[in-house]
Amino acid sequence: MPKRTDIKKILIIGSGPIVIGQGCEFDYSGTQGCRALKEEGYKIILVNSNPATIMTDPEFSDRTYIEPLTVEFLEKIIKKERPDAVLPTLGGQTALNLAIELYKKGILKKYRVKLIGAKYEVIKKAEDRLLFKRVIEKVGLENPKSGYVKNFSEAKRIAKKIGFPNIIRPSFTLGGVGGSICYNKEEFEEKVRWGLSVSPVKKILIEESLIGWKEFELEVMRDKNDNVVIVCPIENLDPMGVHTGDSITVAPAQTLTDKEYQKLRDASIKIMREIGVDTGGSNIQFAVNPENGRIVVIEMNPRVSRSSALASKATGFPIAKIAAKLAIGYTLDELKNDITKKTPASFEPTIDYVVVKIPRFTFEKFQQADQTLTTSMKSVGEVMAIGRTFKEALQKAIRGLEIGRYGLGADGLGQMTLVEKLCHQSDNSIEKKAYIEQVKYKLKVPNCDRIFNIKYAIQLGLSVNEISTLSKIDKWFIHQIKEIADLEKQISLEFRELSLEEKKSNSQLSTLNSQLLMKAKQYGFSDYQIAYLTGKSEDEIRRLRLKLRLKPTYKIVDTCAGEFEAYTPYFYSTYEEEDEIVRSPKSEVRKKIMILGGGPNRIGQGIEFDYCCVHAAFALKELGFQTIMVNCNPETVSTDYDISDKLYFEPLTFEDVMNIYDREKPEGVIIQFGGQTPLNLAKKLKKAGVKILGTSCESIDLAEDRKKFATILKKLKIPHPLWGCAKSFEDAKKISQKIGFPVIVRPSYVLGGRAMEIVYDTQSLEKYIQTAVDVAPEHPVFIDKFLEDAQEVDVDAISDGKDVLIAGIMEHIEEAGIHSGDSACVIPPKTLKPQITRIIIDCTKKLAKALNVKGLINIQYVVKNGTVFILEANPRASRTVPFVSKATGIPVVKLAISALLGKKLPTPNSQLPTRQNYVAVKESVFPFTRFLDVDPVLGPEMRSTGEVMGIDTSFENAFAKSQMAAGTPLPEKGTVFVSVKNDDKEKILPVIKELKKLNFHIIATKGTAEYLTSKNIKIKCVRKISEGCSDIVDLIKSGCLSLVINTPSGKKASVSDGYLIRTIAILHNVPIITTVPAAKATVAAIKSLKREELNIKPIQEYWE
């Protein structure tokens, strides 16, 4: 049937900021959906609060609203734009929840707006745990034994019936937030109350524990004619009890029998029919008892999900695009497969390779957090790898994670050296026995390193059966890991048996016969691993491979296992005879350029860099180049098969990039858009003869090498804080005493402020050196004078080597000392004096020219007492590029591409846009609700997972919008608790006076209360927790507080009272402010909210 003609205008709801449980996969799905519907001639209205997304670029929709994702703002947009339909299935759980609210409040009915993609009844039956349970029972399937509760009394009754352990699953949350495993009565009440508090509908499901069962997911699509496609069966390597987002997953499922798979397939179709999904896709999760084959249905998502992105990239089947087309009336058999151009979308994908996804964790950012993996998701990103076997894909995925590993061991890293030593000890060795017990514990308790511990256990002599019993991981996977360990041992033994003369010469490399080397490569071993096992260098192994003509072949991801010709060049590497890369025809005159992506998302390097890579591909295409994208992140837009001319889904390592470079022979490689990941490869790539386009490796080194950088600043007469480089604690102590405390200390060459800390005395410095980092001559620590009470400023600029364009100057709202990625910031600057702005522009131009930057540069400044100091310069794309682009309308990446290709900037010596009559505020979003033991105080180490933007005609309104978008709406009445350090008491006084004028009640602890009372402000004094009083805790728990303002002491930032207050406030969703500047901005915004209603405007109108 043809597409629907009763609708002309469609509102697409985005997913908001990147948070744990809802990542950039929804930018991928949203972008794909927008493109699909626009090509069908529909007018697209988009609303999303995340400026770092491709989908919020104006060219992807007719009207783009960067506004808070709340029902109130959505109603305003609907009222203004009058869409015919709302499509909520591309924006994750956020969009689905909003659609339900719009329906229930009668807003859709009021404005005669249809819900497409999933009807209200469909969403309700799939998302409401009780209704879903009834559906499952109706179609003759099983749910886990469970009970649905709204309060603790009901929960106790259900727990008594089900027993312990049990699983708590809050309704309508994302990424399992609030979910937990309860092992006993003692922890039950706290976890139940937490689950109820985070559920939007204040309901939770308590179900029987299926811990240890095998878990599977099926991605399913169904149209209105009952055509059903199983896009991909996915198997979780980790058993039930670990959130699927935190589990290693494999596609296609490896351990299902044909009979079991058919049962799951049939069950999925029954569920889809009974739920009523008939215009899109769903993700359905099953648990299978490995003992008796009992199958139970866990849950389903009637929308595009996190796993949908993985399934799309794994198979080449564009789930989001097809879902969007089904939503407007098409059927699967009417839609063509983009890759084959012949088969219809109703043709079920078949793959003849194995895909492995491994989650990326950043526990190093949250030292106090419990690192046990549970039903509540904790990973911040993921990597995907494709190989002909599970072994090959697994090792490729591990090296793509960028955790400093080159595969599953055989690299001398992690615990490998210790394990190798213990393997040679007697079984009666006390040290060996103790370590084996540690490994057994780590196998039993899920954690992010469990895959390595399986290998260690094998090396230490544990049997496959014993490892499977401890970990509940299927024996098939453990056998595969054992085969990797066995081959590692074989290579090692063959090398050891060589004579001393052979080992000293290079001739022994040839004794690594080509068959063994080929086998190692087919098992996914990297050159680095083979080099480690043979005592040679990575370069020597690479040369040997090339000499033996052992080069990777490249296969096409074609959705049909080679049964039909594929027209989309989407490749993965393997080691076989047949190669599927088709040489470019002689008529192809376009020059090739390779773009290196950013790899897996993690704190410090996220979606912002993928935004830059995608725009780089677009800009190069416009200029007539053939683009080649290299990346390994399945969540991203850059890894969509039609963004670049060629896509290589490969790890971003020297070996993998060089293999592609040797094959494609591009004109050059662009490394400045993928964050630190490609930059780390720059020197090795240049040494290997790769042409780096844009800013040279030498210029990058000038900026990253502190001594060289200081020399340039001295020559340019640009001030910088005093600093030193310490290679021991004694060095650090001398430097700190010379500079003067407080100082900011950090390891060299870090990302996202890793392990950065402000220290105030020698005792704190010694503790840092002992616990935070390993200081050695090869691992120095940088020590900088910390400028207290200073203003921090970020600048993004573009240079063509001669002229410099200032794209954006961002004033941080918080004072210096908070990582730039975590601080809220504003464009245009709010308080910078004109002469300070001129100095910053002048310094930026001088430095960009001195570094010979060609492309992008980000410079961070700090202003204190009228003096501008430079903190650091990064001659690459920064995480602020998308925000600057959206806030100013300047096509930053497009201009940077022209500059790095040697073209002159179109507007030399340009200043900031003078036409900007609006304000944009960027606010960061944090994962503290996932890590409830972690103090939410901000500092120099980055912790945010994503960002939002507020845009309006005034700073106050833009800031208010940014807070709403970040999930912390500003209170307009109620009680505010205040407790600030001594240095902040005078600064907080104007804030408290304003709050009193706004009729807020103020309570404070003794010190703050006495100060405020002395200033004639009437407040209520409450005792501290450390004084044996629980008043503050009780007020937070009972919902009596509207806001908490608590600034920690610099020297005791995580001690007792303040720490407890902050963590309890996070637990109970009470907004908390930990800096005075943020408190000032908040009060100004509240004042504005009480004075006027917030308006909406699409980004296209702001740019007019």
Helix content: 25-40%
Could you name the ranges where pLDDT drops below 50 across 5 or more consecutive residues?
Answer: 909-914
Please tally the β strands and state the result: 39
Main sheet summary: 7 strands, antiparallel
Number of helices: 40
Measured on Cα atoms, how large is the radius of gyration? 29 Å
Would you mind describing this structure in some detail?
The protein is α/β, with parallel strands linked by helices and 1104 residues long. Helices cover 38% and strands 19% of the residues. The strands form seven sheets. It has a seven-stranded antiparallel sheet with strand order 14-13-10-11-12-15-16, with helices on both faces. A seven-stranded mixed sheet has the order 17-18-21-20-19-22-23, with helices on both faces. Strands 32-31-28-29-30-33-34 form a seven-stranded antiparallel sheet. Strand 35, helix 35 and strand 36 form a beta-alpha-beta unit. Helix 16 (464-471) crosses helix 17 (475-496), helix 21 crosses helix 22 (538-547) and helix 34 (955-965) crosses helix 39 (1076-1091). It is globular and about 80 Å long. The two termini are 40 Å apart. Residues 909-914 have low confidence and may be disordered.
